[in-house]
Automatic annotation (TrEMBL):
The keyword Protease does not apply. This is Uncharacterized protein LOC104586161 isoform X1. It holds the Pfam family PB1. InterPro entries: MULE_transposase_dom, PB1_dom, Transposase_MuDR, Znf_PMZ, Znf_SWIM. It comes from Nelumbo nucifera. Residues 833-852 have a biased composition (Basic residues). SMART domains: PB1, ZnF_PMZ. Keywords: Metal-binding, Zinc, Zinc-finger. Residues 741-773 form the SWIM-type domain.
Length: 867
């Protein structure tokens, strides 16, 4: 490696752009035309800084720009500079020179013609629009490629470079006959055949021919087979805001292909790679939309409902016909537009006609003398974008913004960033479903409608002093009736975020039916989850339930609801959710571990929770203590009396595993982005369907117990084998099997605790009933009876019409409800760079060390010492 002259310390780069590569007789490439700027670099120059400086000089997009150069003794192969190491290599290669030539190349952008063509022909070159002439360029003929020969990708560098230069030179000479300024048109191959080289053919082919007379319309020849070009209608949305476009070349696995590149700045033109197996139905849909937009403006006498409808039709019409316009007059009663191109005669005027109450086109000159070229500005206004996205959301409500951006880019050639599409999605959803913000004003009407359509239901909401939304509580009559008459007195409490624009929280209270399945009783939407919002919810719940039964509440210990429950519900019991308890226990484990190891801890915790006897509980926690004293301390400090069966005084629930939050999440996952009214109504619909389906399912049950409990009772009966029953009194019995158990039929209790835990007689109690001739069904919990289950789901949630009804315009101030004020901080848009992590104060950064000179402050790549 040759070191730079330390006295000179810099290399002058002659940066060239705007020209073209031409092929010499020896196969080498030469750059011709364009402009040049000089930039100096040295060992300390960073690649990003150089690229930024060049982009500023040429006024081009830094993301679509690349820097290339030739090696000093090789003019056949272009080398790309893509990072700091590549830049240092360039400096090293030209270490003995004062200057070096570099070439600025912009990334090619495939024209939409290529994307819209789906033909199966493999050996053809197509002009996007009709060609008027081909300048006099010598034909470059290449020998035939034998069918058995190696693919073109293995061609020699001299051959590929020569072919590339010839292709670029030939393509750049094509001129559109509609373009009076002589702007080069796009030249492209079909999307499913990108190679200009007909691999496997036996005839030679010509890239450009010496033809001065007009060629056949829309046709370029390859070999001796003329192929018609694609219709301009197929590429009507090639680009929006299209600038001049010139041809360039690209080398791929199938050989070289000629593609178009943007020449100039303006509206971004999207680059999309089209799969050769694109869906024909999608293409047909786009073409149908194009045809619809092209006929959106028909001429004088056409009527519209108003100026907004006229402007929307005009905007789509201009896109479909590939031109831009200026509104000379833009008022509610009249609108006049003319083509943006200077001197063009296209013009349209429409105005309001009071007699017909329509907005009518009065004058229109349909002739374009400009050729219909789009200018720099894009017609993709907010309303237009919303209308496009709205059509897509109607077909697929959960379209992702990225997918929408890709489709708009593919169909219309407009490149939009994420935030633009996201705002368009919000506007489109507002048009389809109503404004999220305005939906809060519907809450007073909505609550009245619920009570009106579902008598006996309770729906309350509160606002803050500034009229911003705070709480909404809802419990349907069908749920309250089912809980009071058919469900055990157990309520599970949980919450889940709605993940919507204003980040509301859903609070839930659910019971369990005879099958141990979730039965929703009430829910609330609150602006924030805290002790105050939970307290308000429990107060509303007590008013709705209004029962004399002692209720057992079950919740996540971390929510801290024990105090609020005891304050609001007298004689209530509060237990901790076993599932959440296990999750919190796992998070607390830190080690060290002994004995059976960490893997045994969760099993012993569950054993302690489910053990019906105190001695079983003690054995399990002792095993935990033998493994980890810290885990044992955590268990003893977690209020075992609130989750261990042997200590808990309320209704037994440890065998019930409800996932309330997950169920409600599944219900609302499809409507998270909808306004609050539709979100609540979606929950109502799910509850309505659940109650109906379970009522229908239980309508043909013929057993006294529900089927699952009937099977369980039969299992207990089958376990009775040679049991010996001893009488102590009319109600007290002693049952002998492998052990001795005491049964009290008045108390519905057995010393094995099975009867108390399950609500069904255990095998020992069944043995007693067989001896004394009692009906064992009389000693089963009534909540497991088929009659109770059917009673749980006997009432229906009624439908609610006109949910999409907008809030009344003359609503009084007292009915005004604003969105919640407490919002989480939004995440920065994906386009923003992440903040660099700041180093802690006082932390010393390790200095760099060079492995070449052993010095500090630099590394081997930036070392200035000679090798």
């Amino acid at each position: 490696m040759v070191a730079m002259d330390m006295a000179r310390e810099k290399l002058i780069l002659i940066c060239q752009s705007g020209g073209e590569f031409v092929s010499n007789n020896d196969g080498s490439l030469q750059y011709s035309g364009g402009e040049a700027h000089a930039v100096d670099v040295n060992r300390g120059t960073r690649f990003d800084d150089l690229k930024s400086e060049i982009a500023e000089l040429w006024n081009c997009d830094i993301k679509k720009m690349s820097i290339k150069y030739f090696l000093p003794s090789n003019k056949h192969t272009l080398i790309t500079v893509s990072n700091d190491k590549d830049l240092q290599r360039l400096i090293d290669f030209y270490g003995n020179s004062v200057t070096a030539d570099v070439y600025i190349v912009t990334r090619e952008s495939v024209s939409q013609d290529v994307l819209d063509m789906n033909g199966s022909r493999t050996n053809q070159t197509v002009v996007a629009e009709s060609a008027n002439r081909i300048s006099s360029t010598p034909a470059i003929n290449f020998p035939a490629t034998p069918a058995a020969a190696s693919p073109v990708v293995n061609a020699s560098p001299s051959f590929t470079a020569s072919l590339a230069a010839a292709a670029a030179a030939a393509a750049a000479t094509l001129v559109d006959d509609d373009n009076t300024n002589g702007t080069p048109t796009s030249i492209a191959t079909p999307a499913n055949s990108t190679s200009v080289i007909p691999v496997g053919t036996t005839d030679s082919f010509t890239i450009a021919a010496d033809i001065t007379a007009p060629c056949s319309p829309k046709m370029v020849t390859t070999s001796s087979s003329p192929v018609p070009a694609a219709s301009a209608d197929d590429a009507i949305f090639e680009s929006v805001g299209q600038q001049k476009r010139t041809a360039s070349w690209k080398f791929g696995v199938n050989g070289f292909s000629i593609v178009s590149v943007t020449d100039g700045v303006g509206q971004k033109i999207c680059t999309v790679s089209q799969d050769t197996t694109s869906n024909g139905e999608d293409d047909a849909g786009v073409k149908k939309l194009i045809t619809l937009w092209k006929n959106g403006i028909t001429g004088v006498g056409q009527q519209f409902s108003g100026v907004h409808e006229f402007r929307d039709a005009l905007r789509k019409y201009s896109i479909a016909h590939h031109f831009m316009y200026i509104l000379k007059k833009n008022e509610a009663s009249r609108a006049t537009a003319k083509c943006r191109a200077d001197g063009c005669t296209w013009r349209i005027h429409a105005s309001w006609v009071p007699t017909t109450q329509t907005f009518t086109i009065k004058r229109m000159n349909k002739t374009h003398t400009c050729g219909g070229n789009i200018g720099k500005c894009s017609p993709s206004t907010k309303n237009w974008l919303a209308s496009i996205i709205r059509d897509r959301l109607q077909d697929s409500p959960h379209y992702k913004p990225k997918d929408i951006a890709d489709e708009i880019c593919r169909d219309f050639g407009i490149e939009l960033n994420y935030s633009q599409v996201w705002r368009g999605v919000e506007n489109a959803r507002a048009q389809l479903q109503g404004s999220y913000k305005d939906a809060y004003n519907q809450l007073p009407w909505f609550c009245e409608k619920i009570v009106e359509t579902n008598p006996g239901s309770i729906c309350n909401f509160t606002t803050k002093d500034d009229l911003s939304f705070q709480h909404l509580f809802l419990s349907f009559h069908a749920s309250l009736f089912g809980f009071k008459n058919g469900c055990r007195p157990i309520l599970f409490l949980d919450s889940t975020p709605l993940k919507s624009k204003y980040q509301e929280i859903l609070l839930i209270a659910a019971a369990v039916d005879g099958e141990d399945s979730m039965f929703p009783v009430a829910f609330a939407i609150v602006d924030v989850e805290n002790d105050a919002s939970w307290h308000w919810f429990l107060v509303q719940l007590k008013s709705a339930v209004s029962t004399s039964r002692s209720i057992t509440f079950v919740s996540d210990k971390e929510k801290g609801l024990k105090k609020s429950v005891s304050e609001i519900f007298e004689n209530a019991h509060h237990g901790y959710s076993i599932r959440h308890l296990v999750d919190n226990f796992k998070k607390s484990l830190k080690g060290p571990y002994h004995g059976d190891g960490k893997s045994s801890l969760v099993g012993n915790l569950l054993g302690a929770a489910h053990s019906p006897r105190l001695d079983g509980f003690r054995k399990c926690i002792q095993r935990i203590k033998n493994v980890s004293s810290e885990a044992y301390d955590w268990v003893m400090q977690s209020d075992p009396e609130c989750w261990a069966n042997s200590l808990f005084k309320g209704e037994q629930y440890s065998q019930i595993n409800l996932k309330i939050a997950e169920t409600f999440n599944n219900w609302i996952v499809e409507v998270r982005e909808l306004p609050i009214i539709q979100k609540i109504d979606a929950i109502r619909c799910k509850m309505m369907e659940l109650i109906y389906e379970r009522r229908v399912g239980a309508s043909d049950w013929s057993t006294l117990l529900i089927p699952s409990k009937e099977e369980r009772l039969k299992e207990e009966i089958s376990k009775i084998d040679n049991f010996k029953v001893l009488f102590s009194s009319d109600t007290m019995f002693e049952v002998h099997d492998n052990s001795i158990n005491v049964v009290n039929i008045d108390q519905w209790d057995c010393s094995c605790q099975g009867w108390r835990m399950t609500g069904l007689p255990c095998r020992h109690a069944i043995a007693v009933f067989n001896c004394i001739g009692r009906n064992l069904y009389d000693y089963c919990s009534r909540y497991f009876m088929t009659e109770s289950f059917q009673l749980t789901y006997s009432e229906s949630i009624n439908p609610m019409p006109n949910i999409g009804k907008p809030a009344s315009k003359d609503s009084s101030d007292k009915d005004q409800v604003h969105p919640p004020r407490t919002q989480r901080q939004p995440k920065p848009p994906p386009t923003q760079p992440k903040r660099k992590r700041s180093r802690s104060k006082g932390k010393v950064q390790r200095p760099l060390h060079c492995s070449k000179c052993k010095g500090e402050g630099h590394n081997r790549a930036s070392c200035k010492e000679a090798s």
